[in-house]
Amino acid sequence: MDIADFVASQTQLVERERDYEAEQSTALASNWLPTELQRLGFALVALRITRHTTGLGGKSLLTLEAPTPGTALLANTLRSGDIVSVTAPVNKKNLVGMHGVLTQCSDMKLTVALRTDDEVPGDWHERCSVRRLASDVTYRRMLQALRSLSERPAAAPVVRCLLGNSEPQFTEPAGEFFNMELNAQQQKAVRHAVTATDVALVHGPPGTGKTQAVVEIVRQLARNGRVLVCAPSNLAVDTLAERLGHPAVRLGHPARMLPKAAAMSLDALVKGSDSGSLLRDVRMELDQALARLPKAKRPERRELYGQIKDLRKEFRERERSVVAQTIDSARIVLATLSGAGARKLGDFHAVVIDEATQATEPECWIACIAGLPPTVTSGKPVETMFERVRHRCPNACVMLTTQYRMHEQIAKVSSQQLYENKLAADPSVAGHLLSDIAQSTDDTTTPLVLYDTAGSGMYEDTEAAGIADTDSKLNRSEAALAHAHVLRLLAADVSPRDIAVISPYNAQVRLLRELLRDHVEVEVGSVDGFQGREKEAVVLSLVRSNENQEIGFLSDYRRTNVAVTRARRHLCVIGDSETVARRSPFLNALFVHLEDNADLRYPDSM
């Protein structure tokens, strides 16, 4: 594969996607007032700034609350980690505000870390708005990685292997395992990865213990040098961070991390370092100056602005040195693929990319460019960097084939359709059921339940057509069936913490959360949010039901496979077989399997 042609093709695809998202974001800002966006859950208006302090990088941290003290914020879809805009207190379209990251989000208040040094106007403290934005950061980093790739010598061994132009090479295995409980397949995968001189692939279907193998691979590689560990999502990175049990630095915003991973975040490590006390002194002076701003008269305000500017400069200079020292001394550095392009990270002995087939090709190149020695990728097959290398260089890949999560009937379709029928359930899980951990009922004694809504008139709806979240589909009838099924599981003494309700569509997720608001321990989320997770019982609402048999991104079998394989003992699928099964070979196979093996339930008879 010619490197110039490859870079040109990938660049064009990234630019198309970036431009489309920018158009959607512009349309949202142009066509909807802040109050209308608030009604849809994408914004909050008429907020008060109740606190103004300093965060990492000298950034301003704004705490915002409802206009009436002690009043909860209106229901919204804002989440920690969102890119947001803080804008003036006027109800106009196309408002240009101060951009930042939502670092904390609760029922009572929001905290936003601003991205600029601009001072917040005094009148905003009593009334301002916050709305979610699209971000082009990842696109810029992908394009930069592709430009860097085009400037590198095509003869570099890792580049040749990743483009499928040469076979990977391996050395003789050496060294003992850290985790002596790995099974033979996992040990083989670890040896395969650790002995690679350029590229190795570890193919781990759901439930096969891939994460345990990846953790061992990282620890083994760290014996010989620094390791950069990446994945497409924050959740996947945090899962590895929590299981490593090894000193490491987690890059990224703490707001996007799980609590245990946040403890090893760059922010936390810098604050806790020996040099952190110097930073705290400057931060305290900054916070005191910022606190005086809202009530300062004009002459004093000008003096305060100058003082704040000087303090921020001093803070950043000191922090830059501490950050560089912290990263350089870390044996293991963890980041999302996009986050790996956020700063210069130094040299690495190896790069490990987990869930590689869930990432786009340019995202993977961000991490590879950050440290271009041997690269180990793991994931499930699809035509990505992972699959191209797998097809062109078969000896680069090993596969884990024993899964320790699912009842054998839950895993069967994935095994047949995606893993050449090689995926086998370990005896410890092959027959386990909810009745083993709860009461024995019709629901808990079967691993599979299917509610087939075909012919019942339970058609989908579109939420707020024309706004950027959207085409987000919902299906109220399916949501009611899911709600009723969850209540029956709870009545059978299934722990709410063991139940997940999943849907591919965000609008359906919002509806389900509303229906289950009295059962907060039942986890409700999107398919993407459950990547790498598992629950004892999963209720899956497929949503799509229409006369034209349109299924949108349900045709992406990866998403459906992720949803199905989250369940350990019980999987309940709710969907219209006439709509979804005809347009997707994977969904067709799933419904055939369910019709033959599941407890079939038809809504018309209920």
From TrEMBL:
SMART domains: AAA (SM00382). InterPro entries: AAA+_ATPase, Coronavir_polyprotein_1ab, DNA2/NAM7-like_C, DNA2/NAM7_AAA_11, P-loop_NTPase, SF1_C_Upf1, SMUBP-2_HCS1_1B. Keywords: ATP-binding, Cytoplasm, Helicase, Hydrolase, Nucleotide-binding, Nucleus. Its EC number is 3.6.4.12. The keyword Iron does not apply. Belongs to the DNA2/NAM7 helicase family. This is DNA helicase. It comes from Linderina pennispora.
